[in-house]
From TrEMBL:
Keyword Isomerase assigned: no
Signal peptide positions (record): 1-26
Domain SGNH hydrolase-type esterase, first and last residues per copy: 65-243
InterPro entries for this protein: Ester_Hydrolysis_Enzymes, SGNH_hydro, SGNH_hydro_sf
SUPFAM superfamilies: SGNH hydrolase
Protein's name in the database: Acetylhydrolase
UniProt entry keywords in alphabetical sequence: Hydrolase, Signal
Pfam families registered for this protein in UniProt: Lipase_GDSL_2
PANTHER family in UniProt: SGNH-HYDROLASE (PTHR30383:SF32), THIOESTERASE 1/PROTEASE 1/LYSOPHOSPHOLIPASE L1 (PTHR30383)
Any GO molecular function: phosphatidylcholine lysophospholipase activity
Amino acid sequence: MIRRLTARSLLALPLLLLAGLGTARATPPNLAVQPVSRMDTPWWRQRFADKQAEIAHGRFDLVWLGDSITQNWERTGPEPWRQFAPVWQHYYGDRHAINLGFKGDSTCHVLWRLDHGELDFRPPPRLFVVLVGANNFGHVHIDAGHTYPGITRIVDQIHGRFPAAQVLLLEVLPSIRTAWITANTQRLNAMLRADIRRDRPWLHLQDVGAALERNGAPDPTRFLDPHLTPPDPPLHPSAAAQQDIARMIEPTVAAILGDHPH
């Protein structure tokens, strides 16, 4: 039943579970680790189909996997803060790379995608760059303690399919949304640093939050959201900040792929 959940039923599930508990003794399942489809969302369904075709007909050494922050690599201006594609082309254009970022995806949606074709690469990729978790703290409202096993399940599923590949996991980026989100972002990243690399020699963890900060705090000028009309709370890196993220991870990417630094 869980595998047939959609994005709409995801939000209704806690109420349905509580209605059926009676004594309220049962513990609801952790939604962060349950594969959840968004195929009822037309643009998402079309993007998923397009990416499946890309996977089926290409060779990819490098896979970026995540949410809208990753999807933004495909944006092109005209404003400078939207000019992501030239940065992608500089760092990844000659590296057989694919962008598997989907706006709004939480860990549960990424897990569904992995179960339904986003690991069907031939030949196997050499590196996965994973950035996910920010949306768990948003509309789905899943805390750090429940999000952590969702992230471990993602990286373990990648490794289970491609044991020779390396995974570069990026810590959840800072944002300026709510105090609850900030606290859970910090807690989740502390949990990742403390434990996730244990018994996972193929996993690399990197903190790239400094690309969005000034004097140790999130800097609104490093985000694209304040430029929107109407403005949104700062969450997504601007093109310049995302370029800094690419620059920060470049030594690891080049070492794993065995090519020259870009």
